[in-house]
Amino acid sequence: MAAMLTVILVGVSEGGCSFRLGSMFDKDKGDPSDVTGSIGPVTRIKDDTNLTDADMALARNAASDILSRGSKDASQPWENPETGARGSVTPLATTYSSEGRVCRDFLASYVRGTNEGWLQGEACQQGQGPWEIRNIKPWKRS
């Protein structure tokens, strides 16, 4: 009985499915035929957001709108039907004072074609006047 069990175990360990571990862990030796196509390639954003001036104007308007409402924990969507670009703007933290003005930072998301990412910005207000966007640029992790 022990001899039969040894034969079965040897047969199972030497037969069965074969699997090559190397190709799974070698970054440079991947086989392109291993791609199933069920998940498309990830597109990384460089410094180019692919947003037009009109897209940026709509994002700025959304930022001004949401900041004017003074809502806490709210976002304002924006969309440009001409280019297909869209996103939302979310104020961050609380206001602070800069050069005698009340200011607030915000993040804006964007999607246009295969590009998507974040913009960071700062808006300031003089007295009770409208919020003026001081800067808006691609967000960089620090």
Question: How would you characterize this protein structure?
Answer:
Strands 1, 2, 3, 4, 5 and 6 form a six-stranded antiparallel β-sheet that branches. The protein has a domain at 53-138. The radius of gyration is 27 Å and the shape is globular. The longest helix has 17 residues, at 53-69. Residues 1-47 have low confidence and may be disordered. By secondary structure, it is of the alpha+beta class. The protein has three helices and six strands, in the order αααββββββ. Strand 3 (96-98) and strand 4 form a beta hairpin.
Entry keywords:
globular; disordered N terminus; 6 strands; 6-stranded antiparallel beta sheet; 25% helix
Q: Which SSEs are present, and which pair or pack?
A:
Elements: H1 2-14, H2 21-25, H3 53-69, E1 76-80, E2 85-91, E3 96-98, E4 101-112, E5 115-125, E6 131-138
Antiparallel strand pairs: 1-2, 2-4, 3-4, 4-5, 5-6
The whole-angstrom Rg is 27 Å
Mind describing the biggest β-sheet?
6 strands, antiparallel
Q: What's the total number of strands?
A: 6
Q: What is the rounded distance between the termini?
A: 66 Å
Fraction of residues in H or I helices: 10-25%
Order of helices and strands: HHHEEEEEE
Mean pLDDT: 74
Q: What best-fitting shape do the alpha-carbon axes yield?
A: globular
Quickly count the helices: 3
Overall SS class: alpha+beta
* Percentage of residues in DSSP E strands: 25-35%
Low-confidence stretches: 1-47
